[in-house]
Design goal:
The structure is a single chain. By secondary structure, the protein is mainly alpha-helical. It has one domain. Helices cover about 80% and strands about 0% of the residues. It is built from 18 helices and no strands. Helix 4 runs antiparallel to helix 6, helix 6 packs parallel to helix 8 and helix 9 packs parallel to helix 14. It is globular.
């Protein structure tokens, strides 16, 4: 990059507010488009492919995800969080990460036959071998994406992501239509990752220097190593269920569970991405002002729940008609699985936002310890739940995640940090009450809802939830923050909750 100071990002408060609001607003629009693309593709593919075909992909997905968690190395977060950073340090991280990814891809190729033995599925080794290329492609995009985040160029990131997803979805659907079965899922993912890498390099305008030893990389690597541990713990807590179900119940049951899980997790990720993408850069920049830091986090937590909680309440109450409407009668066994996963989805954003606090405050060692503890609880819940099949796994994990893991993580994130437990409780209390009211209204309407009537019912859920929040203490301030964020979409002067 021609500018030697492109990593020296020091914005004043007004600039931070402007970039944060524009970034969150642009990402919110992007998430709406991504939701349509991914949600629509899920519906189309569910009618083109059978549960067992999804099951083959779900068998190898945990192995690829594990390698991906090791490969990421926490380098992206280190680049975003670090106050002072040199271009040669970034180049060194790129070459280290690329070497790791190539080694892991070769290891995956060599070990692919073992997947066939473990699952007793002859297609698994070939799919796993093809997916090994994903590790290298994702690595190529990692550093340019981190640079864009550090510079708070969220509009550019969103544009790249939309283009890549659109290409991936289009290729996957066309390939499935041509009868490529589970290979359509493989080809779509690889093409999407390749386009991400190419576009990220072009837009970021960054090129790595030649490989060389650089002083100071060790500290960044240690920071990243802790986050790698967190990623690995998260991997085990989110993919051990697939491994256990696949081995104990077979690919049909796994296909039901995997599609239900993705139907919850993908929209959740898309709804929270506008704030998650902004959160770490913004909180890292304002942590020298504790009061501002606390206000910023509290408002971002409330906005995250305002976006996600009504949808999860809707899905819990109307799980059966929703699944039948989207996927058809042959997916009816997925209904209880989907409903229990949505119960966990109610508190998932609270669990996720704790990572903002740990990482932005540089407390990654404590984050690692808690990630390991909550991961062990998850795995234990899967082991118990499998006694009742895929539904049992979903049920026991939802209960432990809601009643044990999330409270434990929230306590740890607010113990000794800048944000206090009272800040979190004050933020979520009115939203919990709003969730109860929205659930009651939807339960009254449930006997009359099916098919296309579910779409306006979702709108009713959001309207009731929002109106209840507005009537409770703090509701007006949250509405004003949301309105200012929406204002940035219309070209008005942007602002954020940190003001």
């Amino acid at each position: 990059m021609s500018d030697p100071d492109f990593l020296d990002i020091k914005y004043d408060r007004d600039t931070l507010k402007a970039r944060s609001a524009r970034g969150a607003a642009a990402t919110l629009v992007g998430q709406g488009i991504k939701f349509v693309l991914r949600f629509g593709s899920t519906i189309v593919l569910a009618r083109l492919l059978a549960p067992a075909e999804f099951g083959v992909m779900a068998m190898v997905a945990p192995i690829v995800a594990f390698m991906g968690a090791v490969n990421e190395g926490g380098f992206a977060q280190a680049i975003v969080q670090r106050q002072n950073l040199r271009s040669e340090e970034v180049s060194a991280l790129f070459w280290i990460n690329l070497a790791i990814s190539v080694a892991l891809a070769l290891l995956l190729l060599a070990g692919a036959p073992l997947a066939g033995l473990a699952y007793r599925e002859p297609e698994a080794p070939r799919v796993l071998a093809a997916m090994s290329a994903l590790l290298v492609l994702d690595t190529l995009a990692l550093i340019p994406r981190a640079i864009l985040s550090r510079q708070m160029r969220f509009v550019a990131q969103t544009s790249i992501e939309l283009a890549s997803i659109a290409l991936s979805v289009a290729i996957t659907i066309v390939a499935a239509w041509w009868g490529l079965s589970y290979w359509s899922l493989v080809v779509g993912q690889l093409c999407g990752s390749l386009s991400w890498a190419v576009l990220a390099f072009v837009v970021a305008g960054w090129r790595p220097s030649r490989p060389a030893r650089v002083a100071g990389v060790g500290e960044l690597a240690r920071f990243g190593a802790n986050l790698t541990g967190v990623n690995l713990a998260t991997f085990f807590s989110t993919t051990a269920d697939n491994i256990i179900i696949g081995a104990a119940a077979g690919k049909a049951a796994l296909g039901l569970y995997d599609r239900s899980y993705n139907l919850v997790v993908q929209p959740l990720a898309q709804l929270t991405a506008p704030l998650s993408r902004v959160a770490l850069p913004l909180l890292s920049r304002v942590r020298e002002d504790p009061a501002l830091y606390r206000r910023t986090y509290a408002q971002m937590l409330k906005l995250t729940l305002l976006l996600t909680a009504p949808a999860m309440v809707f899905c819990v109450v109307l799980a059966r008609p929703l699944i039948l409407f989207l996927w058809g009668e042959r997916w009816a066994p997925a209904v209880p699985i989907f409903a229990w996963i949505c119960v966990g989805g109610l508190v998932a954003p609270m669990f996720t936002t704790n990572a903002w606090l740990f990482t932005s405050e540089g407390r990654t060692s404590r984050q690692l310890a808690l990630a390991v503890a909550t991961s062990l609880i998850s795995i234990a819940s899967f082991g118990v739940g499998i006694l009742w099949g895929a539904v049992g796994v979903a049920r026991t994990n939802a209960l432990t995640f809601t009643l044990i893991q999330t409270p434990l993580m929230m306590w740890a994130a607010t113990s000794g940090g800048l944000v206090k437990p009272s800040d979190v409780l004050g933020a979520i209390a009115p939203l919990c009450a709003a969730g109860v009211v929205a659930a009651a209204v939807l339960l009254l309407l449930a006997p009359h809802l099916s098919g296309w009537w579910l779409i306006p019912a979702l709108g009713v859920g959001y309207a009731v939830f929002g109106a209840t929040v507005l009537l409770l203490p703090g509701g007006r301030a949250l509405l004003q923050t949301t309105w200012r964020l929406a204002g940035s979409l219309r070209g008005r002067k942007p602002a954020v909750a940190a003001s």
